[in-house]
Design a protein that fits this description.
single chain, about 350 residues, alpha+beta, Arc Repressor Mutant, subunit A, 3-stranded antiparallel β-sheet, 15 helices, 11 strands, globular
Length: about 350
Amino acid sequence: MNPVTLRLLNQQLVAPQFSDPAEVVSHLGAMQAQEYRLMRWAVAMRTRKPSLSAFTKAFDKGRIIRLHLMRGTWQLVTAEDYWWMLELCAPKAISVTNGWMHSNKIDIPEEEYRKIREILAQTAADKGSVTKEDFVNALAEKDITMDDHRLSYHIRMCEMTGTLCSGNLQPMKATYALASEKVKRKEPLDRDEALMRFTRKYFQSRQPATLEDFVWWSGLNISDCRRGIELLGDYLRVETVCTPSLRHREFYITDDCRTRGFRKGQYLLIPPYDEYLIGYKSRDIVLPPEYQHHAHNNRGIFQPIIAHDGLICGNWAPFKKEFQVEFFREGHHAEDVLSAWEEYRKFMWK
């Protein structure tokens, strides 16, 4: 088993199987969407023919939704998965967020939550798709002012309680909409069914992966993660990789794991916060520890990276009109990445 090759294939980073951006998001279950501008490339690069207009159409129609969900951070999910994933993941995410607020000495009484939630929800209902500035103005009309940090927590809580979700896509600024109008409600799932679906989506799209990887990514308790694996039964099998760097690590692999379609020599321009790294607790399979600081720091800040045959080898500048790359591993040259850059440039600026 070559874990690097399998991850590239099952994450749809090579030989992608989907044309529809919403199918990519559904396949991965939830995709990190911290960087508003580059989340669209993270999805599109996993399609057969990257198209900004296709992503925008799926996003504006509410087939792809952006919200604070797992680990209290930004995620993309599909409308089909929105309500049941929210019910499964939000309680733990809210607990995590409350912990952050406590550490920042921010205390928001329940009465304030209710009052601000009503104002934000009414603003979204009236306007359809609103920015944070619209919320600030609506609060000001009621003689309410608060700093940006506090307002951000209110918006985040509205997302994690199913009041707000993403509005229409804008070039730079996130927008918000009333979740009940943007996403059609589905019949609720019982907890075991939700755990089984959630676990299946994780391992089918990120395999091979470990229990620890799944716990990290999901933000759920380890008991929930073990239960999800148990519910999948024989669909998952365990394989042990015995190399000096992987130290007899046990990986889960599905019965329908993709194994064909990989071709050597491909360079990938991967955005920051991409699932290729952030989807795992241990990233040393593709990024040796001595190079870790080139990709992310210990405060959770991730950088744009270049992968060659799945191994992280450099950095790139996604917001520069001119081509800029820097390699921290030997044997690579800027001209090797030109075709990948042209595909990205065509997607972002055509």
